[in-house]
Amino acid sequence: MKLASACSSLLVGLMGLAALGACSPSGSSDGEVVNVYTARHYASDDHVYAAFTEETGITVNVIEAPGDLLIERVRADGDRSQADVVITVDAGRLWRADEAGLFQPAPELAETLQTVPTNLRQPDGDWFGFASRVRVIAYAKDRVDPSLITNFSDLTTPEWAGRICVRSSNNVYNQSLLAAMVAQQGADAAEGWAEGVVSNLARPPQGGDTDQIRAVAARECDVAIINHYYLARIMRSEDPGDQEIADQIGVVFADLGDGGAHVNVSGAGLAANAPHRENAIAFLEYLLSEDSQRAFAELTNEYPVIAGIAYENDVLDAFGSYNSDDVNVDALGENAGEAQRIFDRVGWP
User: Fold this and answer.
1) Is this prediction's pTM over 0.90?
2) How far apart are alpha carbons 165 and 172 in whole angstroms?
3) Is 202 found in the same domain as 189?
């Protein structure tokens, strides 16, 4: 059973856009394929592809590339594109893909999408979140009283001077966080928050989310802004070094400002020129199936977007429940430009 095309993220990484252009899926004479162009590379996705093929008989051709490169590839292909489904992470990138014309309406999904919270899908249904990730605050258990952090705005107080680690401003997760603040509280308030965080940094922004967690454990800082699943990955690791780090770190689902945590998504939509539309619709529906939703939680440590999905993940259970902010994910992309201008003005590298 063929589950993926010969294209690989390794090839893309080595040879760039030219290599990706040489990896167009060949399809099949009977049309029983679906070409999935994705910026994800997780075990959960491999499970979903295999399970979908087993259930439907439809072969999944997987074409992988980093998010921005993937968007450019599909955009550049235009009417010649063989993409049926486009998947990427972070609402900001999904918005950019939509603005680039990569998606088309899929009225066939209207009923299915009613199961997805309205704030986790594009208002017109052009794309939707199928797994959610939360921007949280990791803290050193031996040096931080978590009751002092209930809201992201708490990080701007003098209490945290020289104690915060975070990624750079060109990271899409940070751009979306600030964009959500712009949407909810206005640009002035968002700029005040960014300026306050910059004044409290323990070191210049650098590295990825995992690096921020390791920096807290190494006492380079006391708190860090991260996506929750990076910490969950460390906590579920069997590596003794990771377990040592995990024992030192706690997590707060801080409010964005309205009594809810900042929630982002991994998302997907029907490609604008999908050559196998019916198969693509079936695949998109399958992303919201109970099996898929459970796989994202158990294998990738993301939260299901469908309420009531049962899964086995002790770390997510230990994190506890949280309330989501009410900002629609589409606004994260709409306000990304303003967020970056704010970052530039306050000197957040």
Assistant:
1) yes
2) 16
3) yes
